[in-house]
Amino acid sequence: MNIILLGPPGAGKGTQAQRLEQQRGMVQMSTGDMLRAAVKAGTPVGLKAKAVMEAGELVSDAIVSALIGERLDETEGKGAIFDGFPRTGHQAAALEILLGERGRALDHVIEIEVDEDALVERITGRFSCANCGAGYHDRFKLPKVEGTCDVCGQHEFKRRPDDNEATVRTRMSEYRAKTAPILPYYEERGLVRRVDGMASVEKVARQIDAILDGA
Ligand code: AP5
Ligand code: ZN
Question: How far apart are the first and last CA of the chain?
Answer without folding.
Answer: 15
